[in-house]
């Protein structure tokens, strides 16, 4: 059973590696947001089953609750810890074009402010996690990473979207 799981995991890594497109002098990167999230989850060995997984393009109500206008994203994925005692939250967005980046960044910053307000009086270690969040951008892609592994997640996100990842 372990061998089968390891073989499947190795196959997924090979498939993900072959399917990832990279930026080459003037070429636009086009990596599905779901693939980015998968790479991030694998690099941090997080269990995806412990998170709500929401497609922000399809669930426009959740997108709007997060302050994200679904008409200005090509794709979006939101993962939030299922247990209310964990602040872990990840949002990856692909803007329809560069003119929407600032509006999307503002929405992510607003979500961080909401989470800081929620956690500031609840669980101190989770509040620290929120305070140490990372918002990062690569081209038309944005990510909000709230996790103990936020730095690893940022590195995986960046590597998946740059030519240096190959």
UniProtKB/TrEMBL annotation:
Source organism: Paenibacillus polygoni
Name of the protein: DUF4358 domain-containing protein
Alphabetical UniProt keywords: Signal
Annotated signal peptide: 1-23
Pfam families: DUF4358
InterPro entries to which the protein is assigned, alphabetical: DUF4358
